[in-house]
Amino acid sequence: MKTCPFCAEELQDAAATCTRCRRELTASGPSQPTASSPPFTQSIALVVALVLAAVILVLFLLAAPAAN
Ligand SMILES: [Zn+2]
Predict the structure, then answer these.
(1) How many domains does the chain divide into?
(2) Structural domain span for residue 46
(3) Which one of 1, 21, 24, 57 is least enclosed by Cβ atoms within 10 Å?
(4) How crowded is the C-beta side of 44, counted as CA atoms within 13 Å?
């Protein structure tokens, strides 16, 4: 048995909603991990890769002979 944190109603352990106040019982274990962090490192890697590609392209264009 567990008690509702809002109205102190005694509920079943598997109850997801209080039968008295109809509120959702969310404080029951680690249901959702903290996966709200954005892919910051992936964005940085993408920007670095793009800059490196641009630099390599500019160096290649500058080093290439203009004779065509
Ligand atoms: Zn309740």
Answers:
(1) 1
(2) 2-27+39-63
(3) 1
(4) 4
Ligand 1 centroid to 59 CA: how many Å?
68
12 alpha carbon – ligand 1 mean position (Å): 12
Centre of ligand 1 from the C-alpha of residue 46, in Å? 49
Cα–Cα distance for residue pair 53/68, rounded to 1 Å: 24
Distance, in Å, from the CA atom of 2 to the CA atom of 67, rounded to the nearest integer, reads 82
Q: Is residue 68 part of a domain?
A: no
pLDDT tens by residue, 14-66? 999 999 999 998 754 444 455 566 678 889 999 999 999 999 999 999 987 76
